[in-house]
């Protein structure tokens, strides 16, 4: 029953989707010098051709100051032709395409244009830029915050003009909005820090800016952490309260996720550590040495199990009535069916669709289908290769 529901057409806000399967945003590494390449178009076109209802283009920076490194794109007219080619190619295959709007905040190795250092909730150590000449992050002023809110709206208007069908505001994984939400990384004492309502003020302002830019019939999703994965970070109770607030403020759906890139990446991934494969691909020798010495504490293998965020996601499901996207350990028809039966409205898949973009078409013929993904997470390391993200089982 649940699988049949997952594969039938559905509407999200003003958008018609052919099914409830969403390819989640997984950074592709296919924008050399910040320009979307043919590989990026081919990657998402293959997922659309394989039957997913919607595919999500990862890390669409809202400004040049919002990138973690230089080979990421930010939303501006200079890349409009390539972006339009991407959305048109996905549509030609019958799929929809969403843009993940993101800003790195104080976590970057990319030198910003408008400040001396990356800016986040407060002054602190920039863990990503520590060995790349940007060891510190600064505190955003009200002027910085106002500019960033405006940039989110401008980026949203841009992606709508270029043919995207939806926008996902990235509020998770330790990037800017997640840095403001988490009590571990937000130590402000003004209107943007302290209680959860105050820590959510910037994400809510961004949501309002995006909504004003795209209108009511254009789906706006938010990717939100169910937990940060370390002591002192966001808890499930925080996530429930944040989801209620976002629902009240008019978000169309919440993609439930977890983990901090800078502190607990394996809380999101689960499975084998990709660190041994990441180290040789790091071009900066100092950064490479740091990864060898310190990376083990970040990238500890964590046994994979299907639906590993289910318990936390259930609590959000009980608290809000808006559409929820279940993410986390979906690699079989049985997992999709259970997620549907649990009351979630959509299912997001990452590694399983990297391993086989055609998996969704195959589901209709094989209700016992299971992904061949072995959760080795070496695809995470391939993001840094010239080819970009790919499954190592298919060289």
Written overview of the protein:
The chain is an alpha/beta fold and 395 residues long. The chain has a single domain (2-382), classed as TIM Barrel (Alpha-Beta Barrel), CATH 3.20.20.70. Helix content is 36%, strand content 14%. The chain contains 16 helices and 13 strands. It has helices at residues 2-6, 38-49, 80-92, 142-161, 176-181, 196-199, 201-214, 236-248, 265-269, 275-278, 285-298, 310-319, 333-341, 351-355, 359-363, 378-382, and strands at residues 10-12, 15-17, 21-23, 54-61, 96-102, 119-120, 124-125, 136-139, 166-171, 220-225, 253-257, 324-327, 346-349. The strands form three sheets. It has an eight-stranded parallel barrel, surrounded by seven helices. A three-stranded mixed β-sheet has the order 6-8-7. Helix 3 links the parallel strand 4 (54-61) and strand 5 (96-102). The longest helix has 20 residues, at 142-161. The model has no long low-confidence stretch (mean pLDDT 96). InterPro entries: Aldolase_TIM, DUS-like_FMN-bd, NADH_flavin_oxidoreductase, OxRdtase_FMN_N.
Helicity range: 25-40%
The strand line-up of the biggest sheet is 3-4-5-9-10-11-12-13
Task: Tally the beta strands.
Answer: 13
Sequence of secondary-structure elements: HEEEHEHEEEEHEHHHEHEHHHHEHEHHH
The description of the largest β-sheet is: 8 strands, parallel, barrel
> Can you tell me the CATH class?
Alpha Beta
Q: Which fold name fills CATH's third level, the topology?
A: TIM Barrel
How many domains is the backbone divided into?
A: 1
Give the terminus-to-terminus CA distance: 36 Å
CATH architecture: Alpha-Beta Barrel
Q: Name the poorly predicted regions.
A: none
CATH superfamily: Aldolase class I
